[in-house]
Design goal:
This protein has about 180 residues and is mainly α. It is built from seven helices and no strands. It folds into two domains: about 120 residues, no CATH class; about 40 residues. The longest helix has about 70 residues.
Length: about 180
């Protein structure tokens, strides 16, 4: 399915799978093996792009025929040669375009998924820029605390172990005099 990575910086095979993986995720397939099998013997990124282009052209053709009203998700999947197991429409989060309106504008489901993914990535990146140093400092403090606790636990284990042996030696020594001091 994917050639072995040989450490080449220009190898973009994995990146090429992103649109396909986004689609698989968006359609919420229970078992992706059937979908992958439909690409058997083909380069998945190239074949998926081909299928997507055909689906987009057909989607736009049907959209025009319906007078700008969005088509169904079933049509989209069948155009891609796939049968989704769960086509529940996602409720658009605040600030995101309603799927029905987006379809009417010619957007396909995977367009919405890509836009959402990009938006979420940008939000995460912003959080990291704003809080990254604070998070790293907190993580370093937690690691330092854990190391101190581990060292303390290890020291008390050793002291306890040696202390117990010393106590046992003292008890044995006080109960019986050393062999050289025994009286006959």
């Amino acid at each position: 399915m994917l050639p072995k990575w040989k450490g080449e910086a220009k190898d973009d095979n994995l990146v090429g799978l992103i649109p396909f993986l986004e689609y698989i995720y968006t359609m919420q397939y229970g078992d992706v093996r059937k979908i992958i099998k439909s690409f058997e013997g083909k380069h998945i990124p190239t074949e998926f792009a081909r299928r997507e282009a055909i689906a987009r052209a057909e989607f736009n053709k049907q959209l025009e025929a319906q007078g700008g009203k969005g088509g169904g998700l079933g049509m989209l999947s069948s155009l891609l040669g796939l049968k989704p197991s769960n086509l529940s429409l996602m409720v658009a989060p605040e600030g995101e375009e309603n799927p029905t309106e987006a379809f009417a504008k010619g957007k396909m489901l995977q367009d919405l998924a890509r836009e959402r993914g990009q938006r979420n990535y940008e939000l995460l990146e912003k959080e990291i820029r704003e809080n990254g140093e604070k998070w790293l400092k907190e993580e370093a403090e937690m690691q330092e605390k854990a190391q101190k606790e581990a060292m303390k636990s290890m020291q008390s284990s050793f002291t306890g172990w040696f202390g117990l042996q010393q106590e046992k030696g003292d008890e044995a020594g006080s109960a019986q005099p050393p062999p050289s001091e025994k009286k006959l």
